[in-house]
């Protein structure tokens, strides 16, 4: 029998926090293509994090700057020139809503004796602000940012932050992410992994059959209780 899980380690953006919420809040100003714009913003944000990690420490930029860089690119590509709208989008990203299942699941896990933490590309300031705005800050035992190691996920040095924080081996931690590349990185590090496949996407990186695949966060407490 596998040893019990010490803590659930959550990705923040796209797993607990709804990354479409910023553009959804200003959908009337962005027009009917706001969802596509939001997906492109996220894709560029992720791409920039990988490229800067691969380029070496001298090219590191924190996630706040990368998020702004990605938005600037998307705005330029689609002719969005209203500085007020861009400022509002940047501000909205710092105060994303949590998914509706996030708060009850965090509460249920902690009530059952499982610690909960975030491990994220976000800066400490971004994560503090976001978790307070989403009303999940009091349900977390810790918030771990990649800024302490200066590289982005899926670099193994990021995942090591969780094992060091909880003074345990990777197999005693459940890593929870909606991002397949993040789930894959965590799996290679040795975590138990729950992939939150909210949109029923196809398998990537051979995750299916090697991780726990859930349609949302709601089933996570029952899975950990097995």
Tell me the layout of helices and strands:
Elements: E1 7-10, H1 21-25, H2 27-30, H3 34-55, H4 63-78, H5 83-93, H6 102-111, E2 115-120, H7 124-133, E3 142-145, H8 156-166, E4 173-177, H9 180-189, E5 192-196, E6 212-214, H10 220-225
Parallel strand pairs: 1-2, 1-4, 2-3, 4-5, 5-6
Helix pairs in contact: 3-4
Task: Describe the protein.
The structure is a single chain. This protein is an alpha/beta fold and 226 residues long. The chain folds into two domains: 7-18 and 96-225, 3-Layer(aba) Sandwich (Rossmann fold), CATH 3.40.50.1000; 21-93, Orthogonal Bundle (DNA polymerase, domain 1). Helices cover 46% and strands 12% of the residues. It contains ten helices and six strands. The chain has a six-stranded parallel beta sheet with strand order 3-2-1-4-5-6, with helices on both faces. α3 crosses α4. The longest helix has 22 residues, at 34-55. It is globular, with a radius of gyration of 17 Å. The protein starts with 6 loop residues before the first strand and ends with a helix. The model has no long low-confidence stretch (mean pLDDT 97).
What is the gist of this entry?
This protein has about 230 residues and is α/β, with parallel strands linked by helices. The chain has helices at about 20-25, 25-30, 35-55, 65-80, 85-95, 100-110, 125-135, 155-165, 180-190, 220-225, and strands at about 5-10, 115-120, 140-145, 175, 190-195, 210-215. The chain contains 10 helices and 6 strands; from the N terminus they run βααααααβαβαβαββα.
């Amino acid at each position: 029998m596998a040893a019990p899980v010490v803590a659930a380690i959550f990705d923040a953006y796209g797993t607990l926090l709804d990354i479409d919420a910023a553009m959804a809040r200003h959908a009337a100003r962005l027009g009917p293509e706001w969802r596509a714009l939001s997906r492109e913003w996220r894709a560029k944000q992720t791409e920039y994090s990988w490229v800067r990690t691969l380029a070496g420490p001298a090219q590191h930029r924190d996630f706040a700057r990368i998020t702004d860089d990605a938005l600037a690119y998307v705005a330029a590509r689609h002719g969005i020139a209203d500085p007020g709208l861009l400022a509002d989008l940047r501000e909205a990203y710092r105060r994303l809503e949590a998914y509706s299942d996030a708060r009850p699941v965090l509460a249920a896990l902690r009530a059952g004796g499982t610690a909960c933490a975030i491990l994220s590309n976000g800066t400490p300031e971004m994560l503090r602000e976001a978790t307070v705005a989403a009303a999940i800050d009091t349900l977390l035992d810790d918030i771990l940012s990649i800024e302490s190691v200066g590289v982005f996920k899926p670099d193994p040095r990021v995942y090591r932050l969780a094992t060091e924080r909880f003074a345990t081996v990777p197999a005693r931690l459940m890593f929870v992410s909606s991002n397949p590349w993040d789930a894959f990185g965590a799996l290679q590090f040795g975590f138990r992994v729950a992939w939150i496949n909210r949109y029923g996407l196809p398998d990537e990186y051979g995750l299916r059959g090697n991780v726990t695949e859930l349609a949302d966060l709601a089933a996570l407490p029952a899975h950990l209780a097995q």
